[in-house]
Structures are given as C-alpha cells and as structure tokens.
Design brief:
mainly beta; SH3 type barrels; 17 strands; ribonucleoprotein; transferase activity; RNA binding
Length: 286
C-alpha cells in the first residue's frame, strides 16, 4: 500500500495499491481471445429506467472472461501472468492448460507465475488447487465455493475474502463464511484452496471525488436533503428527524445499522448452522 504525500488537497489521505509488486506486469495487455467489449449500463435496465442509483460515466473497461466453473478436471495448468481486472476487486491469473488452452481464473494470495494448479478430486490441498469440499481437511482456507455441485463458484470471491472448513458431517461440510456465518454445503461441491488476492483493497482511500468518478460512481444525495415525495427521509422544516424508527431506502425497505433484511422463509435457511454476528465482529471474522 502506497500513501500519497499531502502535496495538494486532493492528494491528502489518498492511497493506492502498489500493483508493480503484486502483478506480473503492469503494462501487459489482456489475452485478446478472453476479452469482450460492452457498454456501461449507467445503472439503467432494458427499458432505460434507473434501477441502481449513483452510477454513470467512468473510464471505459473491457470485460475479461473469467472461468468460475473450472470444469477442466485432471489437466494441470501453469500460471503465466497475474493481472488486474477492472470488473472485480481481486486479481486474475492467466493459466495455460497442458492441452494448450488458456483461461482466466480468480487468483489467490501468494500465487505467482510458473506455479502449477490442478482441478481434481485427487489434487493436494495446496494454494490454487481445486477439489471437492469433502476432500479438504478441516481448518483449510478456501475461496470460489460452489453452492451446488458443478454450479460454478458463487461464494467468497471478493478481494481478501476466504471461508474456513469447520467440519464434515453426513455428506455435508460445515463452512465458516467471511460474514462469520456457519453454513452447510454439500460435500461434493467444489472449492479452491487459499484466499482471494489483493487483500489490501479494503484499505484504499480514494482521497478525492475524481477517483470515484473514474470508477463510474456519481455523487450521492442524502435522503434527508430530498423532498418527501422523493425519499422516505425527506421533507420537514430544517433538519427534521426521519419520522420513523428504522432507516429506509428510497423504495421504503429497511437498510443499514444491523437491520435484518433476510426473508424469514428463505429456502436456504435450513443450511445455516450459526447466524452471522452483528457489528464489528463481522469484519474481524471472529
């Protein structure tokens, strides 16, 4: 992590990740056959209506086709490069399979060029390898977890995230999630060994509004500053209180400050062994 010197108001408190120390090369272009173009939605749906607020503008980006299914089993692959991906917080790695095919995968911490990774039921539980949850020893850190076998990685994919294998029981594996929730996953679902790369991402301080605009983030207007017709917190004379107990979104749903938003009848409730802990404990993963 590099912190800028306060040579100007915009530089004060700003910080950036030192990509030269993390990536194979900061000047190399992505693999052409694994890149597609695309327009920014600006937070709008197919009818042109804004469904996600505070999005728009930003630098143009190219989408890297990252392999989250990882169905090429029992074929060793060598890591060629570790690269930056503008669409995700973690780094990605370009791997060359023994049959000559190249693909992008989500890179774990400590993965370097020249390392061999393998997707196999008989693979060793080492960094970058992928195997069924039932074959992973208790206490191992994993990422890119599947919810259903062969369904593709869905859990623990953000920068620095990981889950921990807690126990094996009757065809299920108990896994402690990044949120501190302990949940049952079927033991035939696959997971990769390690933790997602770029763990310093959460420490970055943008320092100025311009860096946020480059990322496609637009200014956000507080709900209390709006009219009553535009937001549940709006209206009133001066700095009026919001008028109801719980904070709400523009659509009227509860939000923030530890308020529960999960449906009490959600289909996957039966697989939760221990609920996530509220407050600071969620970030410390205790």
């Amino acid at each position: 992590m590099k912190k800028y010197k306060p040579t100007s108001a915009g530089r004060r408190d700003g910080s950036v990740i030192e990509y030269k120390k993390k990536l194979t090369s900061t000047k190399s272009l992505p693999h052409k056959s694994l890149v597609v173009g695309g327009k920014s939605t600006g937070g709008r749906n197919n009818q042109g209506r804004t469904t996600v607020l505070n999005r728009g503008g930003g630098n143009k980006r190219k989408y890297r086709l990252v392999d989250f299914k990882l169905e090429k089993k029992d074929i060793p692959a060598v890591v060629e490069t570790v690269e930056y991906d503008p669409y995700r917080t973690g780094f990605i790695a370009l791997v060359l399979y023994k049959d000559g095919e190249r693909r992008y995968i989500l890179a774990p911490q400590e993965l370097t060029a020249g390392t061999t990774v393998l997707v196999s039921e008989k693979a060793k539980p080492t960094i970058g390898n992928r195997l069924p949850l039932g074959n992973i020893p208790v206490g191992t850190l994993v990422y890119n977890l599947e919810i259903k076998p062969e369904g593709g990685a869905k859990l623990a994919r953000s920068a620095g995230n990981y889950a921990t294998v807690v126990a094996h029981d009757a065809g299920y594996t108990l896994v402690k999630m990044p949120s501190s929730e302990i949940r049952k996953l079927i033991s035939t679902a696959w997971a990769s060994i390690g933790a997602v790369s770029n763990e310093e991402n959460r420490l970055v301080d943008l320092g100025k509004a311009g860096r946020a605009r480059h990322r496609g983030l637009r200014p956000k207007t507080r709900g209390t500053a709006k009219n009553a017709v535009d937001h549940p917190h709006g209206g009133g004379e001066g700095k009026a209180p919001r008028g109801h107990r719980r904070a709400r979104t523009k659509q009227g749903r509860p939000v923030g400050k530890g308020q529960k938003t999960r449906s009490p009848k959600k289909y996957s409730n039966n697989f939760i062994v221990e609920r996530r802990k509220p407050g600071r404990l969620m970030t410390s993963r205790k």
